[in-house]
Design brief:
By secondary structure, the chain is α+β, with helices and mostly antiparallel strands. Helices cover 29% and strands 54% of the residues. It contains three helices and six strands. A six-stranded mixed sheet has the order 2-1-6-5-4-3. A hairpin with a 4-residue loop joins strand 3 and strand 4. The chain is globular, with a radius of gyration of 14 Å. The N and C termini lie far apart (36 Å). Pfam families: SnoaL_2. This is SnoaL-like domain-containing protein.
């Protein structure tokens, strides 16, 4: 297992890019995870797992994903990841977006993550 937050972030991102979104979630997200996106706040691993499963199961086409930038503050346990995503989601349609994820890490797992859309 990786020692630094940067190594964990890089592994998490690589697994997402390989399509192992749910496996990466299980490994790197804490039981008390809080995730925020579009003014929606989900608390706890169970609620967030359900959301992630719905997202993955709703993907009808995943055209592109790219990590554009990563910054990590090891001392404070904070990581920033800028993503480019292009996919089709059942019931939503085509989605092309840039977003930044701000992650707060404790004991080798993410305890809080907030997503900010860019542009």
């Amino acid at each position: 297992m990786s020692d630094t937050i940067r190594e964990k972030v890089d592994d998490l991102n690589a697994r997402i890019l390989e399509g192992d979104i749910l496996g990466a979630f299980e490994e790197y997200y804490a039981e008390n995870i809080v995730m925020e996106e579009d003014d929606v706040r989900r608390e706890g691993k169970e609620a967030n797992r359900e959301y992630e499963e719905q997202f993955v199961n709703g993907l009808t086409d995943f055209r592109a994903a790219e990590v554009k930038a990563v910054a990590v503050n090891e001392e404070d346990g904070v990581a920033f990841v800028e993503w480019y995503l292009d996919f089709t989601l059942e019931g939503v349609g085509d989605v092309e977006q840039k977003q930044t994820s701000v992650q707060y890490w404790e004991d080798g797992q993410i305890v809080h993550e907030k997503f900010y859309k860019i542009g």
